[in-house]
Design a protein that fits this description.
Organism: Nocardioides daphniae
Keywords: Membrane, Transmembrane, Transmembrane helix
Radius of gyration: 28 Å
Helix content: 25-40%
Order of helices and strands: HHHHHHHEEHEEHEEHEEEEEEEEEEEEE
Low-confidence stretches: none
Strand content: 15-25%
Strand order of the largest sheet: 2-1-10-5-6
InterPro entries: Ig_E-set, OxRdtase_Mopterin-bd_dom, OxRdtase_Mopterin-bd_sf
Distance between the termini: 67 Å
Pfam families: Oxidored_molyb (PF00174)
Number of strands: 19
Shape: globular
Mean pLDDT: 93
Protein name: Oxidoreductase
Length: about 500
């Protein structure tokens, strides 16, 4: 005879299995229709939008680029917990348990439909989850009851059949999810795009200190190592043949450009360092690359902006995400561009394919719109972008900063000749000098690496005769305009972090 505990656990498992089938089928349907409408991703994206800024900053600081995986895992865990409860209820009231799963699926459906730009097709994944999840739960509960009746009449009670059915359905769920993910990733693959040479190329790129100072950040960041911080849980699916970039708003004429039309325009190539506003002092969310694109001023000139009263460019990506950029900064002579290439190749999808905005000297949240499809000239009083609505700054120049790459914080080094090294950046200003402080003593001037340009970071190093003991190392940078890196500690919100990085190192 079965015990109540075993029966409860088994029905909880029925709820979990049924929900896994529903989630997996919904993901497959979403992959074939609207990838962002996959219920788990839709709920996760809604959570991102509703999460208070301090919590977002904590997640980036503590979890880094794993924050998206942790969020999705948390959503799945909560859903499966509720599914288990629905399964327990279904033991005695099958219809109520099935309705609970339908309600659970409806939450994902509502989140998908509420996403910017969602159409009727966004309903399909949630409907698939509701129907399949409820249906599988009812079938498992009835199978369990029939198996229990047979077992009660048998001299050798067994529920092997229902357990095997559950295992089989779990395998089906895994297959559906894998198929959906394969379709999503296949659709996200960027076709081979051959970019024309720049009419205004960047100069020869110098050799960096990474060849002589082990542990220092490379002068140019490999594309595969370039940081990615954004709100998207799933990369968009972009059809290059259907994509275009439109400029509208307070302009003389609305204009649109296809990708081929962009590549036919005079292209500029520049080495530029980008920085995320979420980067803490000494943090990793900064990288340097060679960008290829159309000067932003050239594109705006096609629309005619001489008489505009706009003070911002409101950029919109292919899925409705908005980012605002001060118009005066975009047109003040710096190498602002709509980039289509990165480090000699077309943009990877993760970094904005087919086009993104690059404005040296501004944090990404007010400049680096990826997957851009529209630029609207307007005013801050008329329209607010995603981050502006969340009280982030509207004009956020990158703060001068520096970072120690080697030795690593809390490292255990051997006594003798060591090298302290790292990078410093002050985009659109340039680095004049970097200083290092050891154990609170006087600041010492470090040697600088090659100067790629004011919009690019600068490597630096200082030889150090290290003695045994615990030592405290700090660095600070000075810009070419005389600005010294701030010592006052500020968090990233609302306009970027500041302060002096100091690390502890043990020498033995």
């Amino acid at each position: 005879m079965q015990t109540p505990t075993r029966a409860t656990a088994r029905h909880a498992l029925h709820g979990v299995v049924a929900t896994c089938v529903g989630i997996a089928l919904a993901h497959l349907v979403a992959a074939l229709t609207v990838p962002d409408a996959s219920p788990v991703y839709a709920v996760g994206s809604t959570v991102v939008d509703l999460t208070p800024t301090p919590v977002k900053e904590w997640a980036v600081a503590e979890l880094g680029t794993a924050d998206k995986a942790v969020l999705l895992g948390s959503v799945v865990a909560v859903v499966l917990l509720l599914a288990a409860l629905a399964g327990v209820v279904a033991r005695r009231r099958p219809t109520v348990g099935a309705v609970a799963l339908v309600v659970l699926a409806s939450i994902g459906t509502a989140a998908a439909v509420a996403r910017p730009g969602a159409g009727p097709a966004a309903l399909l994944p949630g409907v698939a989850a509701a129907v399949s999840g409820a249906g599988v739960l009812l079938w498992l509960v009835r199978l369990d009851a029939r198996t229990g009746a047979v077992a009660a009449a048998s001299s050798a009670p067994s529920r092997r059949g229902v357990l095997l059915a559950g295992a089989g359905l779990a395998a089906v769920a895994a297959g559906l999810a894998a198929g959906g993910e394969w379709l999503v990733r296949r659709a996200q693959q960027v076709a081979d795009v051959v970019l024309p040479a720049a009419s205004d190329p960047a100069g020869p790129f110098p050799r960096g200190l990474e060849e002589t100072v082990p542990g220092i950040t490379p002068l140019r960041t490999p594309t595969s190592d370039f940081y990615r911080i954004d709100t998207r849980l799933m990369l968009p699916r972009v059809d290059l043949d259907q994509w275009s970039l439109t400029i509208d708003g307070d302009v003389e004429r609305e204009v649109s450009f296809t990708f081929d039309e962009l590549t036919a325009m005079p292209l500029t190539e520049r080495d530029i360092t980008l920085t995320c506003v979420s980067n803490e002092v000494g943090g990793p969310y900064v990288g340097s690359a060679r960008w290829l694109g159309v000067p932003l001023g050239d594109l705006l000139a096609r629309a005619g902006i001489e008489g505009t009263s706009a003070d911002q460019i409101l950029s919109t990506d292919v899925d409705g995400m908005t980012i605002s950029t001060p118009l005066r900064v975009a047109l003040d002579g710096r190498d602002s561009m709509i980039a289509i290439g990165m480090n000699g190749s077309a943009l990877p999808l993760a970094h904005g394919f087919p086009a993104r905005m690059v404005v040296p000297g501004l944090y990404g949240f007010v400049s680096a719109c990826k997957w851009i499809t529209r630029m609207t000239l307007t005013t801050y009083d008329e329209q607010q972008a995603y981050w502006t609505e969340r009280d982030w700054a509207t004009d956020a120049p990158i703060r001068i900063s520096s970072r120690i790459d080697t030795p690593r914080a809390l490292a255990d080094e051997k006594a003798g000749e060591l090298v302290i090294g790292g990078v410093a950046w002050a985009q659109h200003v340039g680095i004049e000098s970097v200083e290092v402080r050891i154990d609170g003593q006087a600041w010492r001037t470090a040697e600088l690496g090659p100067d790629v340009g004011d919009d690019h970071w600068r490597q630096w190093y200082l030889p150090w005769q290290a003695e045994e003991g615990t030592h405290y190392l700090a660095c600070r940078a000075r810009g070419k305009d005389g600005t010294l890196q701030e010592s006052v500690r500020r968090t990233p919100f609302p306009s970027g972090s500041s302060g002096i990085q100091e690390i502890a190192v043990t020498v033995s």
